[in-house]
């Protein structure tokens, strides 16, 4: 399929492309060349476009299938919907239209990035960044200032990073946006994180836990005290897992407090606090206050430093259930990380109920995925498995998945329950975690990822990096 540069694609909006069923393929001087659906009236379309765009128009006829494929790939919109907003650079409403469009497409982040000769806009969909627009150098500062005003930031400060928040209302649906501004060599880069405030659809049973792991996890969070920690890189779904857990635990008989940065979901019946480090409202100091608020359950957005870790341990020791996240590569790495932070091993052993590692894996589009014969050489040489499947599936791309080959994501989990054997092992420097994992038949992330390959849900390429750690 022909590749069309971003600067050419954005001469028309998504709405206009679908309405006239055409694709711009070349801009030369004052003339724009389009591929046009052969079922459209060429004369009428050319006449209208010359008035709308103020430029000379030429059209090359293409069959309907080709046009539909190009439209789906380069002008994606919500499946089955025709209410897609139309962001166009240069319009006063570009910022609002960009946010609406990104939200409709299910994007998690919007990146606005300045470079020497121009700027670009990329959005993250299903974990992957996709370039959507380019912005002329002269227009970029105005867009930055508009976003700063919306986020109530200082438009005169261009030398220091700034963080803010936008409360956005799209057709009655309210959601928040976290704004991060970073000074770079050629201007200020802005990242907008679209926060999904609606926690009504979160269900712990639908997250992706294997049946046995879900049972272990729910048993761990039913305990009246202790710590449950979830690890994974940024964007791996840790916060969603925490909120689904809180929703499960949310009862009128319990006092639940959270300290977060940012507050991504709002849950009725839970007392949520937004972190504000500039005025001293950090994780550790807020945890101290929480202990005077008669809590049953405490959720800490992230354990970043030794002070927060020690306060979380203290809260668990004094009879509270603590939920939090931490950055490590594996469930066992959580225990090592806490000890490296300076928490004594015996305290980790006595307070940690469960360590969980998670990742988000893109799921193959069921319409276009392609079956291929499985060969052992496709796996890393370090990955050992006895039962190899006969087939695996590869990503292809079609109009149903916007030609990415993938549609949606699924979480996979590595669940390590801290039982009596583990407690003694954590206290002992001679404990072998590998032997414990094998004897307890704990499924690592690599095994969970391979199960998705064997069942045809994802590709080897998508989870290849995870297969090194089994």
Explain the overall architecture.
By secondary structure, the protein is of the alpha/beta class. The protein contains 16 helices and 18 strands. The strands form four sheets. It has a seven-stranded mixed beta sheet with strand order 12-11-13-14-10-15-18, with helices on both faces. A hairpin with a 2-residue loop joins β7 (162-170) and β8. Residues 80-85 have low confidence and may be disordered.
Which features would summarize this protein structure in a list?
six-stranded antiparallel beta sheet, 18 strands, 28% strand, 31% helix, globular, 16 helices, 470 residues, alpha/beta, seven-stranded mixed beta sheet
Topology of helices and strands:
Layout: H1 6-9, H2 14-20, E1 22-28, E2 31-37, H3 42-53, E3 56-62, H4 64-74, H5 94-104, E4 109-114, E5 119-125, E6 128-135, H6 140-150, E7 162-170, E8 173-184, E9 187-195, H7 211-221, E10 226-231, H8 238-249, E11 256-260, E12 271-274, H9 283-290, E13 297-300, H10 306-317, E14 321-326, H11 331-340, H12 345-351, E15 352-364, E16 370-373, E17 391-394, E18 406-417, H13 420-427, H14 433-440, H15 445-454, H16 460-463
Parallel strand pairs: 2-3, 10-14, 10-15, 11-12, 11-13, 13-14
Antiparallel strand pairs: 1-2, 4-5, 4-9, 5-6, 7-8, 8-9, 15-18, 16-17
Helix pairs in contact: 9-10, 12-13
Distance between the termini: 38 Å
Based on CA atoms alone, the radius of gyration comes out at 26 Å
Q: Give the overall average pLDDT.
A: 88
Number of β-strand runs? 18
Helical region count?
A: 16
Helix-and-strand structural type: alpha/beta
List low-confidence stretches.
Answer: 80-85
What percent of residues adopt helix (DSSP H or I)?
25-40%
What best-fitting shape do the alpha-carbon axes yield? globular
């Amino acid at each position: 399929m022909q590749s069309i540069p971003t600067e050419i694609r954005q001469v028309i909006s998504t709405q206009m492309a679908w309405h006239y069923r055409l694709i711009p393929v070349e801009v030369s001087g004052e003339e724009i060349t389009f591929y046009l659906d052969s079922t459209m009236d060429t004369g009428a379309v050319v006449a209208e476009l010359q008035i709308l765009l103020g430029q000379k128009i030429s059209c090359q006829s293409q069959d309907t299938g080709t046009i539909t494929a190009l439209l789906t790939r380069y002008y994606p919109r919500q499946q089955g919907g025709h209410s897609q907003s139309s962001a166009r650079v240069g319009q006063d409403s570009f910022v609002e239209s960009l946010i609406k469009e990104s939200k409709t497409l299910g994007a998690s982040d919007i990146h606005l990035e300045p470079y020497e000769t121009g700027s670009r806009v990329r959005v993250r969909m299903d974990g992957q960044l996709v370039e959507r627009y380019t912005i002329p150098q002269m227009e970029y500062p105005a867009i930055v200032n508009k976003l700063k005003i919306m986020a109530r930031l200082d438009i005169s400060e261009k030398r220091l990073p700034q963080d803010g928040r936008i409360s956005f209302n799209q057709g009655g649906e309210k959601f928040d946006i976290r704004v991060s501004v970073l000074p770079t060599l050629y201007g200020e880069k802005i990242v907008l994180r679209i926060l999904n405030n609606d926690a009504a659809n979160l269900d712990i049973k639908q997250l992706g836990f294997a049946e046995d792991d879900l049972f272990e996890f729910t048993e761990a969070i039913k305990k009246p005290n202790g710590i449950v920690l979830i690890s994974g890189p940024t964007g791996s779904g840790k916060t969603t897992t925490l909120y689904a857990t809180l929703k499960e635990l949310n009862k009128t008989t319990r006092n639940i407090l959270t300290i977060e940065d940012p507050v991504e979901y709002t849950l009725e019946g839970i007392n949520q606090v937004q972190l504000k480090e500039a005025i001293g409202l950090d994780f550790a100091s807020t945890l101290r206050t929480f202990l005077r608020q008669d809590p049953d359950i405490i959720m800490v957005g992230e354990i970043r430093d030794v002070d927060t870790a020690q306060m979380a341990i203290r809260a668990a020791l004094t009879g509270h259930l603590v939920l939090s996240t931490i950055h490590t590569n594996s469930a066992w790495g959580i225990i090592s990380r806490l000890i490296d932070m300076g928490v004594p091993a015996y305290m980790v052993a006595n307070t940690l109920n469960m360590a969980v590692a998670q990742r988000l894996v893109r799921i193959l589009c069921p319409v276009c995925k392609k079956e291929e014969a499985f060969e052992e050489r496709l796996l890393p040489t370090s990955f050992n498995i006895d039962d190899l499947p006969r087939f695996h599936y590869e990503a292809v791309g079609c109009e149903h998945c916007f030609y990415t080959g993938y549609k949606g994501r699924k979480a996979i989990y590595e669940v390590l329950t801290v039982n009596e054997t583990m407690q003694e092992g954590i206290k002992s420097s001679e404990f072998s975690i590998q032997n414990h994992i094998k004897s307890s038949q704990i499924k690592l992330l690599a095994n969970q990822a391979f199960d998705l390959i064997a069942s045809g849900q994802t590709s080897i390429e998508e989870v290849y990096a995870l297969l090194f750690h089994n």
